[in-house]
Amino acid sequence: MAGEDGVRWGRRTVLRGGALLAGGTAVGAVGMSETTYLADRRLPLAGGPASATVGNRRQQVGGGALEVVWHVPTESRTVALTFDDGPLPQWTPMVLDTLDEHDVPATFFLVGQRVRRHAGLIRDRLGRHEVGNHSWRHRDLARMDAAEVHDDLRRSHDAITDVTGRPPRVARPPYGHLGGAVLHAAVRLDYRLVLWSLQMVEGEFPNDPAGHARRIVADVVPGTILLAHDVGAERRQVALRGLPAMIDGLRDRGYTFVTVSQLLRRTAAV
């Protein structure tokens, strides 16, 4: 058997290397690269879920750098409201109606397959809002290899662009799971990866939309990226039914609503 550097290993060498690994020591013929190979030989590292690089040849990496954002440091009382997983008929129109009524912009991280299936729900209704990519069908991208992740996000990107007329420039991986392949695909597509710093907590306020709204209002700070959903179980309607009260409560505290990209353009006050 040959190692990565072309040196042939006998059965005894491999077994000895495994024993050294078990003891936490690597000496002699088994150097760092060999120990890594032995420890991780069952993982698809090159181009797999864990790796943010692909192969040995020139890589396509878009702009060459990737920004990952949870929160934007600013003293300005601004907050970005985001909705994941849509569009779906039972939920998305309700959210859009509320946002329109209160003149609030938001960022919708859309699932490409649902965009194709329910295009009529959002076509011509996202003028004030931003669109983001939330994968093709909401699989866990952190478990997929680099080629699969790129194909998934690219497919969703094209669907969102076709239906909304705007290419997404931000993405959020399902469940907030970041793997190396997710990072590599995002940089290829010139995305910013956007997570969140505060999430709706519907399960803590069953049948209490006003209480849920007060909790969120109390927890928001300048630069918050707030995660909500416009799909899901019935209990999530606690957050959506309380959305008007939450908007009013934050405005009473002096907050302005912006899209994620508008928030990202703000910098901390010096």
From TrEMBL:
MF terms (GO), sorted A to Z: hydrolase activity, acting on carbon-nitrogen (but not peptide) bonds
Residue ranges of every copy of the NodB homology domain listed in the record: 77-258
PROSITE patterns: NODB (PS51677)
Gene Ontology BP, a term: carbohydrate metabolic process
Protein known as: Peptidoglycan/xylan/chitin deacetylase (PgdA/CDA1 family)
